[in-house]
């Protein structure tokens, strides 16, 4: 599998899980999957920008991926510890 397929599967799974938990009205878990989805998309977008030579944009996307990664960990700690 190539990177685009893996990205698509991960984004699709996290989106479906977020939607499922929104319907179930379990918003804490839904927010967890939404931030995880943002982490995945920004990580792969940063890699794609870097491969295309857009260093400034890649740096910004990497920063956003790190922010959402930390937010995901914070939500895990707050909700499940």
Strand-helix topology:
Elements (H helix, E strand, L loop, with lengths): L2 H21 L3 H26 L2 H26 L1
Class computed from helices, strands and strand pairing: mainly alpha
Encode the helix/strand succession as letters.
HHH
**Strand count:** 0
Shape: flat
Give the biggest beta sheet: none
- Helical content (DSSP H or I, runs of 4+): over 70%
Beginning-to-end CA distance, first to last residue = 35 Å
Uncertain runs with pLDDT below 50, 5 residues or more?
A: none
Number of helices: 3
The average pLDDT is: 93
- Strand composition percent: under 5%
- Work out the radius of gyration: 14 Å
Short description:
This protein is 90% helix and 0% strand. It has helices at 3-23, 27-52, 55-80.
Structure description:
The protein is mostly helical. It is built from three helices and no strands. Helix 1 packs antiparallel against helix 2 and helix 2 packs antiparallel against helix 3. It is flat. The mean pLDDT is 93. Keywords: Membrane, Transmembrane, Transmembrane helix. It comes from Viridibacillus soli. This is Aspartyl/asparaginyl-tRNA synthetase.
């Amino acid at each position: 599998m190539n990177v685009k397929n893996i990205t698509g599967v991960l984004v699709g799974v996290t989106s479906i899980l977020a939607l499922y938990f929104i319907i179930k009205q379990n918003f804490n878990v839904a927010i967890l999957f939404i931030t995880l989805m943002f982490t995945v998309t920004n990580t792969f977008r940063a890699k794609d920008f870097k491969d295309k030579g857009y260093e400034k944009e890649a740096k910004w996307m990497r920063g956003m991926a790190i922010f959402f990664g930390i937010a995901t960990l914070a939500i895990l700690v707050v909700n499940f510890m």
